[in-house]
Each structure stands twice: as structure tokens, then as C-alpha cells.
Amino acid sequence: MSQNPNLFLSIGKPVKDEYGRVIGKVASFAMTPNGKFDAVFVEFSGGQFSKQPMEQLKFVGSEVTFISTTKAQSSVLCDQIPLIWRKDQALRDLSEKKKIPPEMYQEIHSSFDSVLSQLKKDAQVLSDQISDQIATCADEIKAMSYALLNLEIEHEIGKIDDEAYRTAFAMLQEDLKRTSQEKTEMELAKNKLSNSLLGEALGPIQKTKTSIDLTVVEPKHELPEPPVVVYVKEIGKAGI
Asked: Residue 183, exposed/middle/buried by CB under 10 A (0-12, 13-18, 19+)?
């Protein structure tokens, strides 16, 4: 990241996640002895005070965005697992063709196998974390869907005035959109991890024209049961 002295202007500014939700604010910066920005001190909304690496945040003008590590870690693992597996398979082919000594094959194979085992463990841990995030998003979507329904009911019977209804409706719709987007992206990241592990489990590379389709199909979002259907009426024309 370029060392921009204007970053000091972000002190006290809100920090948002990738979906636009405010999660905290910038408290201060840690500097190296030669004056470079080293880390960011963030006060999160829950009261937690944390030191974050500069790479964890993105500064664009007055906008400060907290970059999620989940998708970044998933992307790295999805690249590394197939790569190490393919290298190990290529090594085995060379051994079978007597192009490398057996002791050299065993040494390098053990190294590849150790790295691959660790990557698979990391992928499983990350997959479990993503599953928890998906479940949290699903709970939030369900809660917001019911909140929208109850908002409509109370407005329909005249308990909530038009201005309050309009404000609450816009807020809930925006939150629902953000959470649905996050859930979809987390599901996609989890599927990519699964496909990477699946590719490793399919066995030796087949050098034929036949290919295995590992295309990730984006999961379809389904609203919780019972389905909530929100009808938006024209403001000012409600009646009981």
C-alpha cells in the first residue's frame, strides 16, 4: 500500500465491511520508525479494540473498508491444493518412467504429501467457519423477512405512520439485500473449497480427452419457511 499521509484523515471515520455495514471506526495508526504505516487500530462496534494489518483495510478517499479474510483464504487454498496435487502426480509419472531415482521420488513425494495434508486440514477448518457464517446469514435473513411482514401488518392497521414505515422498510430491504449477497458469496466459497478437495480425491490424472466437469454451480437462495411475501402498497392509501 502506498504510504499516504492523508490516511490520518480517516481517524474517527467509520469502518464498513464489504457489504456496506458499519462495523467500527478507525482509532489510530501504528507507524514504523521510518514513518511508514504499519497497522490500523480499529474500535469495533461491539466495543472490541483491535490492531489490524494495513492489508486488512482498504482506503478510498474517506471510505474505509474492512476486507474479509475468509474469501481470500478460500481463494488461496483453491489454488494451492490442486497445484500441489498435480505436482505430486507429475512426480509419480516421472518416477514410473524411471526419470528420477526412487530415493529422490520418495523424498519429494513425502514433502508434497505433507504440504497437501496441511492444506486439506486448513481447508476443512475454513469450510467449517464458512458453514457457521452461512448459518448466521440464514438466521438473519429469516428474522428480517419476518420483520418485514410484521412491519407491513402494523402499518396496514394504522399502528405505524407512513414516514416511520417508509424508513423502516428501506432499512430492512437494504439489510436483507446485503445479507443475501454475503450468504451467496459464502456458499460459493464453500463450494469451491469442496471442489478443490474433490479434484484431489478423484485419483491420478487421466491423459485423455475426457475431462471432469468441476464447474461450481452457484447455489440458489431460498427464503425460509414459511415463505414471506411482502406486498408494497402505495403510501397514504392504506385502510382497514
From this structure: buried
Note down the domain range covering 17. Answer: 9-66
Domain match, 113 and 126 both: yes
HEC assignment per residue over 146-194: HHHHHHHHHHHCCCCCHHHHHHHHHHHHHHHHHHHHHHHHHHHHHHHHH
State whether 174 and 152 are in the same domain. Answer: yes
Q: Is the pTM of this model over 0.70?
A: no
Total tally of structural domains belonging to the chain: 2
Residues 29 and 62 in one domain: yes
Record the cell numbers describing residue 177, joined without a space.
439485500
Model pLDDT for residues 19-47, shown as the tens digit of each residue: 888 999 999 999 998 888 899 999 988 78
- What is the C-alpha to C-alpha distance for residues 237 and 221, in angstroms, rounded to an integer? 33
Say if residue 56 is in the same domain as residue 145. no
Strand residues in the chain grouped as ranges (E)? 14-16, 22-31, 37-44, 49-53, 57-60, 63-66
